[in-house]
Each structure stands twice: as C-alpha cells, then as structure tokens.
Amino acid sequence: MNTKSLESLRKEIDELDEKLVVLLTQRMNVALAIADLKDNSISSVQAKHRVKKVLDRVAKIASNNNGNEQFVRKIYSVIIEELTTLQLMKKGLM
Questions:
Q1: 85 in Cβ contact with 78 (< 8 Å)
Q2: Contact 89/37 with Cβ under 8 angstroms?
Q3: Torsion angles phi and psi, residue 22, rounded to 5
Q4: How many other β-carbons are positioned within 10 Å of the β-carbon of residue 4?
C-alpha cells in the first residue's frame, strides 16, 4: 500500500516539473543553435527524417523504463513541432 500523501506526491510533481522545465529550456537553446547550422530552407529546418528517428528513440527509452510509448511520442511530437517553429522563425522562414 502506498503511504505517500497527496501533498507529498504533489510536491514530488512540482520538483519534477522544475527539472523538466530546465531541461526543456536547455533543449530549446540547443535546437536554436542547430538552426544556425541548417540550410536556409523549410525542408532543412523540418528535417522529417530526423523527427522519425527522435520519436522512435524516445519511444524505445520509454518502453525500456516501463513508460507509455504513445504518451512519450505525443509529448515529443509537440516539443519538436514547437522547436521547429522557433527554428523557422529564427531563420526568417516564417
């Protein structure tokens, strides 16, 4: 039986959220640095072949850690979509 209280579990979520936001910000900064190295074209920025590789890789990581692959794919799809938009904006393609 789980003896953790609702309050302690919410505190744990808050701590995880802080770590996630820091990591997401770091990921965003790296993605924006990558934008500088990409050709000045929409297809280069979107890099659809790379998106599939990333989604497959993170789904496997989730699976290996008793996580839900579909959940992780959905979250990463949104992350990639938003970061692609930021890259396109940075390059003046949007």
A1: no
A2: no
A3: -60, -45
A4: 10
- Residues 17 and 22: their CA atoms lie apart, in Å, by 9
- Give residue-wise pLDDT tens across range 42-76: 999 999 999 999 999 999 999 999 999 999 999 99
pLDDT digit string (tens) for 19-47? 999 999 999 999 999 999 999 999 999 99
* Lookup: tokens for 76: 């990463």
Query: What's the CA gap between 59 and 55, in Å, rounded?
Result: 6
Q: Is 42 helix (H, G, I), strand (E, B) or coil?
A: helix
Residue 87: is it exposed, middle or buried by C-beta count within 10 angstroms (0-12/13-18/19+)? Answer: buried
Report the greatest alpha carbon distance in the chain. 56
Alpha-carbon Rg for the chain, nearest whole angstrom, is 17
pTM for this model (two decimals): 0.89
